[in-house]
Design brief:
The chain is built from 11 helices and 4 strands. β2 (267-269) and β3 form a beta hairpin. It has helices spanning 3-20, 29-47, 51-80, 82-96, 99-114, 118-126, 138-185, 197-225, 229-239, 249-259, 290-316, and strands spanning 263-264, 267-269, 272-274, 278-279. With 317 residues, it is mainly alpha-helical. The strands form 2 sheets. Strands 1-4 form a two-stranded antiparallel sheet. It is globular, with a radius of gyration of 20 Å. It has one domain (3-311). The chain crosses the membrane at residues 52-76, 297-316. Converts cobyric acid to cobinamide by the addition of aminopropanol on the F carboxylic group. InterPro entries: Cobalamin_biosynth_CobD/CbiB. This is Cobalamin biosynthesis protein CobD. It is a multi-pass membrane protein.
């Protein structure tokens, strides 16, 4: 994927996602990645007795495997017909980004709260986060929805666009495998503490630069949408490191500053209260109306990110 065609592929993939989102009835490559990972976990554990080494091999084979398979598919499609190869690349990059899905899912949470259906809102947000939702009030649900939109702007939009711009559709697919593995095995539990550590570290590395690039991107979006670009940038710089994740705090702090709300903080996980530092410490807790504001901010940031990646491809040729 090079030159003008590369820019058009990214642009077309973005337009497809914004128009169609994630059609539930169509087969999705990420689901196939999850199936492959689930089936290969046990064989890798059996093959290597050291859990960390087994997890390293597991991640390396799956990530490199999806890159090679995607590259081979793209090359064969281009050999069959250039248009077929281009269409395949567009569809693959489209499958790797999810701004419309984020917008829609957060919107459903907001609609449920606005209609007074808190139980439904809790059920909807429970599908997006790992913390317990049974005792969440309107503000806690709103906070969780905003955090989901903010964090996933990086790994669901900006990072796959960066990989697509640099390594084409195979690179975007390889990143989605990294992200999928992190969501499946990258947990600090007895079962995955060692086996999942390579996948978690690989995900941290893949998102490291985009998580920092997102600060000026979100700040520019905030300047255009909310007139709070300076505050978004300042909050991201001063409080973006207040998170156990090396990456997640940056977009969440930028959103906190842009919207003027307090995010993260204590949460209940698996029945236990986990103390986490607040981000946006000088702001009040969010309310339901901040959810659509966060969605608009994310969409503006998506358009800016897409423009940057398209421009990058046009410049490097």
């Amino acid at each position: 994927m090079a030159g003008l065609s590369s820019a058009w592929i990214i642009a077309a993939a973005l337009v497809l996602d914004l128009l169609m989102g994630d059609p539930a009835r169509l087969p999705h490559p990420v689901r196939l990645m999850g199936t492959a990972a689930a089936r290969l976990e046990k064989p890798f554990r059996a093959l290597l007795s050291n859990e960390f080494t087994a997890g390293l091999g597991f991640a390396a084979v799956l990530v490199s495997g999806i890159y090679v398979i995607t590259l081979a598919g793209v090359v064969l499609a281009h050999l069959a017909h250039p248009a077929a190869g281009t269409v395949l690349e567009i569809l693959l990059v489209y499958a790797c980004i999810c701004p419309r899905c984020l917008y829609d899912e957060a919107g459903k949470v907001h609609q449920a709260i606005a209609a007074g259906r808190l139980d439904q809102a809790r059920a909807l947000i429970a599908m997006l986060i790992s913390r317990d939702t049974a005792s969440m009030d309107e503000s806690a649900i709103s906070r969780a929805a905003i955090e989901t939109v903010a964090e996933n702007f990086v790994d669901g939009v900006l990072t796959p666009l960066c990989f697509a711009a640099i390594l084409g559709a195979p690179g975007a697919m390889a990143f989605k495998m990294i992200s999928t593995l992190d969501s499946m095995v990258g947990y600090r539990t007895l079962k995955y503490e060692q086996f999942g550590k390579p996948a978690a570290r690989l995900d941290d590395a893949a998102n490291w630069i985009p998580a920092r690039l997102c600060v000026p991107v979100i700040s520019l979006a905030a300047a255009l949408v909310c007139k709070t670009g300076r505050r978004a940038f300042k909050t991201a710089v001063s409080e973006g490191g207040n998170h156990k994740s090396p990456n997640a705090g940056r977009p969440e702090a930028a959103f906190a500053g842009a919207l003027g709300v307090r995010l993260i903080g204590p949460g209940i996980y698996h029945g236990s209260l986990v103390e986490k530092p607040w981000i946006g410490t000088g702001f009040p807790l969010p309310g339901p109306d901040h959810i659509p504001a966060a969605c608009r901010l994310m969409m503006a940031a998506t358009l800016i990110a897409g423009t940057l990646m398209i421009g990058f491809r046009l410049i490097i040729g």
